[in-house]
Amino acid sequence: xxxxxxxxxxxxxxxxxxxxxxxxxxxxxxxxxxxxxxxxxxxxxxxxxxxxxxxxxxxxxxxxxxxxxxxxxxxxxxxxxxxxxxxxxxxxxxxxxxxxxxxxxxxxxxxxxxxxxxxxxxxxxxxxxxxxxxxxxxxxxxxxxxxxxxxxxxxxxxxxxxxxxxxxxxxxxxxxxxxxxxxxxxxxxxxxxxxxxxxxxxxxxxxxxxxxxxxxxxxxxxxxxxxxxxxxxxxxxxxxxxxxxxxxxxxxxxxxxxxxxxxxxxxxxxxxxxxxxxxxxxxxxxxxxxxxxxxxxxxxx
Amino acid sequence: xxxxxxxxxxxxxxxxxxxxxxxxxxxxxxxxxxxxxxxxxxxxxxxxxxxxxxxxxxxxxxxxxxxxxxxxxxxxxxxxxxxxxxxxxxxxxxxxxxxxxxxxxxxxxxxxxxxxxxxxxxxxxxxxxxxxxxxxxxxxxxxxxxxxxxxxxxxxxxxxxxxxxxxxxxxxxxxxxxxxxxxxxxxxxxxxxxxxxxxxxxxxxxxxxxxxxxxxxxxxxxxxxxxxxxxxxxxxxxxxxxxxxxxxxxxxxxxxxxxxxxxxxxxxxxxxxxxxxxxxxxxxxxxxxxxxxxxxxxxxxxxxxxxxxxxxxxxxxxxxxxxxxxxx
Lengths: 301, 328
Fold this sequence. Notes:
The complex is a heterodimer.
Chain A: E1 12-16, E2 20-24, H1 31-47, E3 52-57, E4 61-66, H2 73-86, E5 94-106, H3 109-117, H4 130-137, H5 143-152, E6 155-160, E7 167-171, E8 195-199, E9 202-205, E10 215-220, E11 246-251, H6 254-266, E12 272-279, H7 280-285, H8 287-296
Parallel strand pairs in A: 5-11
Antiparallel strand pairs in A: 1-2, 2-4, 3-4, 5-10, 5-12, 6-7, 6-11, 7-9, 8-9, 8-10
Chain B: E1 2-7, E2 13-15, H1 35-44, E3 53-57, E4 62-65, E5 69-75, E6 80-82, E7 85-87, E8 92-95, E9 100-103, E10 111-116, E11 150-152, E12 179-186, H2 195-203, E13 206-212, E14 216-220, E15 241-246, E16 251-253, E17 261-263, E18 270-273, E19 275-279, H3 284-288, E20 295-300, H4 303-324
Parallel strand pairs in B: 12-20
Antiparallel strand pairs in B: 1-4, 1-11, 2-3, 3-10, 4-9, 5-8, 5-10, 6-7, 6-9, 12-19, 13-14, 13-20, 14-17, 15-18, 16-17, 16-19
């Protein structure tokens, strides 16, 4: 990227009790750190080492759950360190993934209604809206410009978690163009299902209704977590997103939103999506140019 | 065969040993909070450790059975009643068709378990029958029980073989006290605490607050302080913030430095608060038994000591099975 990114040095290894190994690749968030996390996670998972229960890649760190009765902690640490060591040239690697178009009704009535219940004592600007506040702290002209910035460039799913199937999203732009918004002062006890939220430098889509502290900008039109697995996109698994997925938000209006609801009810809704190879070096060298290439892959789908 | 729920109690859910391998997409392990008590209940009724039980929280259910059933109630101390008559805990009990099972007032701890021969027979979701309420999966339709539910019970295993003894000896029952020493392995982001903060964590007295459920338990106490630093990009502005990361189950986070939270079996899988240590696997059941007001000290142990404690717990379960003359 044009601004210097902090180099990703050797990871820090530490234990979460006797069942978890925590590997902090970087203290700060960057695309390079996330890419290294995903590379370690993919390689470690592919080894299918007996005693590994879960490999959980996160934004800039990795959590490995293991069964110490089967896999001694020292053996696990040695294994992960070897995987990390083998990745010293990780920046040359490409990620086989997909780009997905996610329709969003920005500035919708559902999140507005909930936001109005959590102002005084919860929000930095109790008299205003979340989007207006987000525009202001990012020195943007108005809510419309913030929304434009939010959907015009794609995002990388840098982590899935918090609750079932919730994607954390990192926008694929230079650091100085990244949207940063503080979380609520105190978390809400309610967030509408499918709220498109933002906290710090991360976007997210709330997969289920519940507590949350991210600012709320809109609502995604289609499910991302479907325990009934009734839609075609959920045939294989109830969770839609995987780390490494690329997301392009598409603004929709109320009529389009309603149209999508009808498709969901009829069981015919499918996400527009296409496989792509994500190349880290291209993304770092010319983010917006490379994003254009990625987004063009969606044309004609 | 089924249990007919007349009154569901406060929060009664179907649980088993938990759901493994989906934490990477935010689906927690779930499972009985007090695994030890649930497992011994299963042993008493001739089940394997995997069978699903009913986990009752403070106020238990009132239920009737539509056929004869063999049950056991383990976990937190409570009066068990069959057709209004008091019966002992930690003992195998016979229910006849039409009998009503109910409970008195809990006398300590937080949760007790109803194990039934054949297990609670709800469908497995992602390899487990445990309820994950937030995601509405597993258990009985993904939720806590409600009045009118007909909860299916499975057929007896191993031809209905039961262990030789019908009561768990006193020495193998857990204690439910208002004071606990919880062993933790320091790590993760403990280096972010000041010396004074670490000292408060390990030498302070912490009390379980009423904000305690299957997701986690919040403690009040002296608070801790964090080292000042320029926050890394993406980490958030408070010194207790980190770039959102995976949370170890049992890890202790201290948002803002005030009230530590121990994440338990239904915990969120990740977030942006620094964890400073993790409860050892052998003490997770102990934490699950902590009622609000429980005075708690955190004892730092090494990873090696945690592994020894883990073996000791496994040994204790084995000895309890042997004492009961279990066949499964």
